[in-house]
Design goal:
Elements lengths: L16 E5 L6 H10 L3 E4 L13 H7 L2 E5 L6 E3 L11 E4 L2 E2 L4 E2 L4 H4 L5 E4 L2 H14 L4 E4 L10 H4 L1 H9 L5 E7 L16 E7 L2 H7 E2 L4 H13 L3 E9 L5 H15 L5 E8 L1 E2 L3 H8 L11 E2 L5 E2 L2 H18 L5 E4 L4 H6 L10 H11 L3
The protein binds iron/sulfur cluster (SF4).
The site of iron/sulfur cluster has 9 residues, from β7.
Length: about 375
């Protein structure tokens, strides 16, 4: 049962300054964002970025969450997910809408990738849609497309108004769906859209102690699940991602409680997929994260370097955590819901009870799961 709930924190309210690249000054979208934000707007010379500190620094990362740069993406928007060939991947396609996020997860891999004193959002959405048009013309492959690779899909959607543009675009696409993945409860823009079942909304979930301590400025479990429930009422299908699963004192009770709350709040038949991924991180992340969050202890566990050069828990611990959480999910999940691992080896799949060869069918199983989920 969800108790009395505080209104969710608005991650966009963390933004204190907008920097507008002068070449975007005439963009209607940029102007609308500036008007909605109600914070000072500074104009940057074309291609310039806010002045940064002398060197990349943990302090700069925290400061950067107050600064949003509105600019043009001159590179490509659309590409396959940068999975590694050593682990089983799901053939995901990534739509790059901007970089960085005002929420602040201790484990966020972006701290190691994007060490900027600012976040960015690309306002040339016409170019984005044009690129998608060309990509759809080139193939009949069924695409699962996500915008949450370098940012959170919905954290500042109330500011950018991007989700209506994308949802409307996807509405009549016969061989693709859009997954909006978030840790916010920022769903207002989705509620009145005619999405035609081509967009799903997903939430990352964790044990509540992890969500409260290690996922700063995110929505609470009850706020995320309430938002998910509202989305089902509007015909959206759902996904959930237990990622990263973090070993901590009381982890079994923590994940059990979250799973119980999930299935007592949200109708199981509306869930297309649930992924599991244990904590993994580039070695470069640890010094940044520990400087910024010295009271976080989970980086002090024992790890091995995986085939993708990221730290991971020992295999025995991963299998123990996966088996336990999968067991709970299997008790509640609908038959059509695809349960899967993100970036794990075929051996781990089998050790956790999947039939031999099941992992290789993952892309097809996800497509099928989505088709079988009722609107
Ligand atoms: S919500 Fe996602 S993008 Fe934002 S800080 Fe957390 S992990 Fe990073």
């Amino acid at each position: 049962m969800l108790g009395a709930m505080k209104p969710p924190y608005d991650p966009a309210s963390h933004i204190r300054t907008i920097y507008l690249d002068e070449e975007c000054q005439d963009s209607a979208l940029a102007q609308a964002i500036c008007a909605r934000a109600n914070v000072p707007v500074k104009i940057l010379p074309a291609g310039a970025r806010p002045q940064r500190g002398a060197s990349p620094s943990p302090h700069g990362l925290s400061k950067g969450k107050h600064n949003l740069v509105l600019c043009t993406n001159r590179g490509s928007f659309f590409k396959p997910c940068p999975a590694t060939k050593e682990y089983r991947c799901c053939d995901y396609q990534v739509l790059n809408i901007g970089m960085g996020c005002p929420m602040d997860c201790v484990y966020c891999i972006l701290q190691a990738y994007l060490n900027n004193d600012w976040m960015s959002f690309f306002v040339n959405t016409d170019d984005l849609l044009q690129e998608l048009d060309l990509a759809f013309l080139r193939t009949n492959q069924f695409w699962r497309i996500g915008t949450g690779e370098f940012t959170d899909s919905l954290a500042i959607d109330n500011l950018t108004g991007l989700s209506p543009i994308l949802v409307n675009y996807m509405r009549d696409k016969s061989h693709g769906i859009l997954e909006l993945k978030t840790k916010s409860a920022n769903i207002q823009n989705l509620l009145d859209l005619d999405h035609n079942g081509k967009t799903m909304v997903s939430w990352s979930l964790n044990a509540t102690t992890i969500m409260a301590k290690e996922e700063i400025r995110t929505a609470s479990l009850s706020q995320r699940l309430s938002a998910a429930k509202i989305c089902t009422g509007k015909g959206y299908k759902l996904g959930f991602h237990f990622d990263p699963i973090i070993y901590h004192k009381g982890w079994k009770e923590g994940y059990k409680e979250t799973i119980k709350t999930l299935f007592t709040t949200v109708p199981a038949e509306k869930i297309s997929w649930i992924s599991l991924g244990a904590l993994r991180f580039l070695p470069a992340l640890k010094p940044f994260a520990l400087t910024r969050f010295p009271s976080s202890t989970f980086f002090h566990e024992e790890f091995i370097i995986g085939l993708d050069n990221k730290y991971r828990y020992f295999r025995s611990l991963r299998v123990e955590m996966y088996s336990y959480i999968l067991g709970l999910l299997r008790q509640h999940a609908a038959e059509h819901t695809c349960l899967y691992f993100c970036m794990e080896s075929d051996e781990i799949w089998q050790e956790c009870g999947f039939a031999p060869g099941e992992s290789s069918k993952l892309p097809d199983n996800l497509d099928l799961a989505f088709q079988r989920t009722p609107n």
